[in-house]
Amino acid sequence: MTMTAAHPRATEPRPRFSDLVAAEWIKLRSLRSTWLGYGATALAVIGFNVGTAYDTYHYWSEEDAGDRADFVRDGIPLQEAFTGNAATVMVLALGALGAMAVLGEYASGTIRTAFAAVPARRSVMAAKAVVVTAVTAVFGAFVAGVSFAATQAILDRRGLGVSLGDPGALRVVVASALLAPLCALVGLALGTVLRQTAATMIASVVVLLVLPVALTDGRHWSAVASHSTLYQAWNRLVSVAYHPLHYPWTIAGAWTVYAVWAVAAAVIAVAAVHRRDQ
């Protein structure tokens, strides 16, 4: 009687986290619509900022001495480096782009393939969050840097331009640049939880824009809630001449809001896929 030796079944090595990051980068890079979205957003954001600076340059000669003095005293040249309109566009667009990084896979069903190949769902989502954060951070740095350089070059033709060494200038650029990855992470988290495009887009607009506008500083609870939103944290960080009416808050507090939103959004995005059917 012959005996056949049983050979242990070869097992596939578990993918390293760096492999998952590389795979997510390839997926994101291959989507032409994603880059068109980033390109259109960059043009819109920079266009708003440059357009505002050009209007100031063009109509400067029509301003009287008092208005000119107020313009400089209130730090408006630095505020025009990244305007509220530009921030609104970036908040909306980056929230949507962050959400689509996962919603597109849910819609096409490729997320099931990814989770079948890599059962460690949290690792897959963590890799996706890393890629989204890295790409949008580069995007934010580019847009904020170009906006600052272009607007101050225009204003400097009237003797109004500021440099990065001026008080508050670097803070404005960094805060505006970081707004991009923060909003993208929020969009990614909402998309992972809701999984429906329409619901995610509505939730993104409400969380990132409607609540910050609806909550006022008139009451203490409302002021605290308002100060806890990303948009108002950005608004505080880019405010050079800060004159609160009711409940003031600090620069450190605004940076803390940034940090809390980043951690919370990443944790929600990673945790939401655990033990859920796809």
Automatic annotation (TrEMBL):
<feature type="transmembrane region" description="Helical">
    <location>
        <begin position="169"/>
        <end position="190"/>
    </location>
</feature>
<feature type="transmembrane region" description="Helical">
    <location>
        <begin position="86"/>
        <end position="108"/>
    </location>
</feature>
<dbReference type="Pfam" id="PF12730">
    <property type="entry name" value="ABC2_membrane_4"/>
</dbReference>
<feature type="transmembrane region" description="Helical">
    <location>
        <begin position="197"/>
        <end position="215"/>
    </location>
</feature>
<feature type="transmembrane region" description="Helical">
    <location>
        <begin position="129"/>
        <end position="149"/>
    </location>
</feature>
<feature type="transmembrane region" description="Helical">
    <location>
        <begin position="252"/>
        <end position="273"/>
    </location>
</feature>
<keyword id="KW-0472">Membrane</keyword>
<keyword id="KW-1133">Transmembrane helix</keyword>
<dbReference type="GO" id="GO:0140359">
    <property type="term" value="F:ABC-type transporter activity"/>
</dbReference>
<keyword id="KW-0812">Transmembrane</keyword>
<protein>
    <recommendedName>
        <fullName>ABC transporter permease</fullName>
    </recommendedName>
</protein>
<dbReference type="GO" id="GO:0005886">
    <property type="term" value="C:plasma membrane"/>
</dbReference>
<feature type="transmembrane region" description="Helical">
    <location>
        <begin position="35"/>
        <end position="54"/>
    </location>
</feature>
